[in-house]
Amino acid sequence: MKVLVVGGAGYIGSVAARALRDAGHDVVVYDNLSTGHEEALSRGSVFVRGDIADAQRLEETFRVHQFDAVMHFAGLIQAGESMRLPGLYFANNVVYVITLLNLMLKHSVMNFVFSSSAAVYGNPDRIPIDESAPTCPTNPYGESKLIVERLLKWYGSQCGLNYASLRYFNAAGATDDLGEEHNPETHLIPLTINSVLGMGPDLTIYGTDYPTPDGTCIRDYIHVLDLADAHILALEKVFSGESITCNLGNGTGFSVKEVIDMVGRVSGKPVPVVEGPRRHGDPAVLVASSDKAKEVLGWRPKRTDLEEIVESAWRWKSSHPNGFRK
Ligand code: UFG
Questions:
Q1: What is the pTM of this model?
Q2: Which of these, 107, 204, 249, 308, could form a disulfide with 169 (CB 3.0-4.6 Å)?
């Protein structure tokens, strides 16, 4: 299959593009390198430097290549930022996705895999969260993902598009040469590693008064390689003419303090930590039920151990102290 990977130079997109290549697919990465990295591009893939806002460049890309499917990773991802800049999130994460979907239809590309998010649920009323839980986002980021999911239903029923909406929980971990490098970094595991390495400030724990056993938030960390596996399976599913919306999580929750302790254990160094107030909009607990993905896609997350996840992130960061920069 020939797959257009929009955002294929970013953290999750680059690992998925690699997995697609390894599975024998032809890959064209379309990325503006605003948050992605040229060094993360999958070997053997074709690279088109372009912005998702640039409809002409996208159109040209569809004209040159005959794609069988599109994967979309080019979303903005910071919930906090989306509260300050909702318009930016709705333009990037909704409007430009509509342009992309319309181009797909125009060029008869009928298979789409979409990076959605656990943020569509907002504050869940039960744990683990399954796909029947109410979707009630608490920030424009989550809303933008939910809007696209809703649009996809209509593209499916009215235009025949086959799609997979994959609701990621907390993507984490690394491969030997592809890891997490956001600028600015906002995620717990890389920030904790940076503080251990003296490459960032002491790690601030955002709230120790949550109704959880140790008072800190609990999240479901899913290894980026397991996410990539799910994308390959989702591609096969949509290619067989079916659509699916499902969670991708490892099914186990870990608290902020447990993650910090694990970084300390794996690195063998003390983690400089300060306790701070809650971060606005953080739900206390987010843990997925991934039963649907297991049943419908036949997916099994293989790296569910927190130690393995943190270890892989530690290994990548220690061997790439400057990220992808030389
Ligand atoms: N945290 C800290 N200190 C920090 C950074 C984070 O205590 O310096 C805490 C947060 O409060 C939260 C947990 O660590 O409780 C995880 O925070 P992250 O910022 O790493 O991730 P989020 O859970 O906020 O969000 C991530 C993705 C979203 C996605 C969500 C789904 O960034 O895009 O997971 O669960 F929607």
A1: 0.97
A2: 249
101 CA distance to ligand 1 centroid (A)?
29
User: 262-279: buried (b, 16+ CB within 10 Å) or exposed (e) per residue?
Assistant: bbbebbeeebebeeeeee
Residue 5 bridge partners (DSSP): 29, 71
d(CA 5, CA 16): 9
Q: Whose CA is nearest to atom 4 of ligand 1?
A: 188
Spatial CB neighbours of 310, under 8 Å, sequence gap ≥ 6: 172, 173, 189, 259, 262, 263, 266
Query: Is the beta carbon of 89 within 6 A of some atom in ligand 1?
Result: no
Q: Report the separation in Å between the CA atom of 79 and the middle of ligand 1, taken as the mean of its atom positions.
A: 9
- Round to the nearest angstrom and report the end-to-end CA distance of the chain: 34
Q: Label residue 326 by pLDDT band (50, 70, 90).
A: low
Structure tokens at 8: 């294929």
Ordered structural domains, the chain, with CATH: 2-172+221-248 (3.40.50.720), 188-219+251-319 (3.90.25.10)
- Residues marked active site are found at 141
